[in-house]
Amino acid sequence: MKYDFDTVIDRRSTHCMKWDVAEGELPMWVADMDFATAPEVRRAIERRAAHGIFGYQDVPEEWYRAYMGWWQRRHGLVMEKDWLIFCTGVVPAISSMVRKLTTPAEKVLIQTPVYNIFFNSIINNGRQVLESPLSYDGKGYEIDFTDLEEKLADPQTSLMILCNPHNPVGKIWSREELAHIGELCARYHVTVISDEIHCDLTDPGRSYVPFASVSETCRRISVTCMAPTKAFNLAGLQTAAVAAADETLRHKVWRGLNTDEVAEPNAFAVDAAVTAFTEGEPWLEELREYLYGNKALVRDFIEKEFPRIHVVPSEATYLLWLDCSRLLNKDILSTEAADLAGADAAGAAAECAEMKRKVLWTSADLARFIRERTGLYLSEGGQFGGNGSQFLRMNTACPKAVLEDGLRRLKEGLKLFQD
Fold first, then answer.
1. pTM above the 0.70 mark?
2. In the CATH scheme, what is the code of domain 26-37+282-418?
3. Which residues are CB-neighbours of 251 under 8 A, at least 6 positions away?
4. Residue 352: what are its φ and ψ, rounded to 5°?
5. pLDDT digits over 337-362, tens only?
6. CATH class assigned to 39-279
7. N or C: which end of the chain has fewer CB within 10 A?
8. What distance in Å separates the CA atoms of residue 362 and residue 325, rounded to the nearest whole number?
9. In the chain, where are the structural domains located?
10. In the chain, how long is the greatest CA-to-CA distance?
11. How far apart are CA 269 and CA 161, in angstroms?
12. Is the separation of the CB atoms in 158 and 102 below 8 Å?
């Protein structure tokens, strides 16, 4: 490989949210990477820093060209310059759009389990969360279109936040699935915010489908959120964009972003994004290969060492969704089973049923146990809604040596929990 993803970089004492943990703990929770960004991007930031003056910034022509060129070349989405609006981040943009495109107490639909901050953007702005749970068959997830249509048909539902590709389940939605979503949302007058921040982190050989590229209907009713921050590990630079083809919808979004003062770049936001999209492609291709290897390492390790945990197949992102239901849903503890051995059959059956209810655990219990016993810090799945209370989310975007340490800790924690 031309680029280095194996070197372990110490992120402690850098005011890093991910690594602001106790000594000896290993954080593999929040979705940022433990890799330095592309050298090309670092050099661009260094050149900008060397100038020494960091005043107010405009959005230049090359920023628009960088976004349009990248999405057309890599994802087949042809955008016009007028569609694009700079914003400081995808989450601030989503929160702003929730405020601008809906009224208080209206419902905003999300497909759970899903990125937990969507809940905050809805609830904190006085709107109602409406969950349309994804269907899970014990192996992977699909959209329950019957439930989705029922929820979209509710007159109080005015907005849907789509996660494409989906975090945390790692699903790439097909063109047909996205078209169906678009048709239903248009039928019931629901606007779509498509969060596509993970779109550049698909597995090698896999590509995602931009929602706005699917049909004229999808393009007309939607706003797309995009950024280089996940793919190039630039979240701290606060650089992102939204794209809306429909002029009326775009004007509402533009007014909201400007009213909320989240539509102006800092001194580094433009240069970093432009360089990522014009010079960062070789680095990104090697990163995708490395992440694919890391995800395969986790799947193979868990299958061999702890087959009671199911790793949900992931086509995108560096996050893995771990189904722990077979570990958490114990029937009864072995000592309690022994105590019941001499009881009469009817009494034992009733007492066993009561015990079974008492020993059901959640992934919050499991995550807390693993962290306390081993220092490994994973995300508990309940915060993502849906059936997430039986899952853990693991961030695999780190050097292999760090990942191997995490897997050893995971094995130890799971074994202790099981025992």
1. yes
2. 3.90.1150.10
3. none
4. -60, -45
5. 444 344 454 555 555 554 444 457 99
6. alpha beta
7. C
8. 8
9. 26-37+282-418, 39-279
10. 84
11. 25
12. yes
